[in-house]
Design a protein that fits this description.
Blueprint (H helix, E strand, L loop, with lengths): L1 E5 L1 H8 L6 H10 L2 E6 H11 L3 H12 L4 E3 L6 H10 L7 H13 L3 E3 L17 E2 L7
Parallel strand pairs: 1-2, 1-4, 2-3, 4-5
InterPro entries: PIN-like_dom_sf
């Protein structure tokens, strides 16, 4: 079974029916077979954006609780890498959620991501490799 990282954009779209990427997010999950991995900063970002609608926010959290995604656990040992990535990509800029996904990629050896952001075509992991964005196939 394959693993794929998931960014806030597709999560927001999945739980907000008025989001322009909602149908793409639904199609992605219908066709997906594997584990989705994300981080608490990504969940926090998604909940913040969904905050205008508490029902959407709660639906996301319930989906996470039921195992819709696996949470990669960041800890203090990751702080130096978070700082390094944020400094390295300060011209993009890289936020905490994006940096956390790069670290999750490095630690889980997962090279695929579902994201609506073009930033992941810029970011590289510790092995100097780009992540493959598998969500883009559902945008058309």
């Amino acid at each position: 079974m394959r693993n794929t990282l998931i960014d806030a954009g597709p999560l927001i779209a999945l739980f907000n029916k008025s989001d322009q990427y909602h149908l793409a997010a639904v199609r992605f999950l219908e066709d997906y077979n594997g584990y989705l991995i994300t981080t608490w900063p990504v969940i926090t970002e998604a909940c913040h954006i969904l905050g205008f609608n508490v029902k959407c926010q709660l639906a996301l959290l319930e989906w996470v609780r039921r195992g819709g995604v696996r949470i990669f656990d960041l800890n203090e040992s990751h702080l130096s890498r978070l700082i390094h990535l944020t400094e390295k990509y300060d011209d993009v800029p890289m936020d905490l959620a994006d940096a956390s996904l790069i670290i999750a990629s490095e630690e889980t050896v997962c090279h695929k991501i579902a994201s609506i952001d073009s930033d992941f075509y810029i970011y590289r992991d510790i092995r100097n490799k780009y992540l493959e964005n598998v969500f883009g196939n559902n945008l058309g």
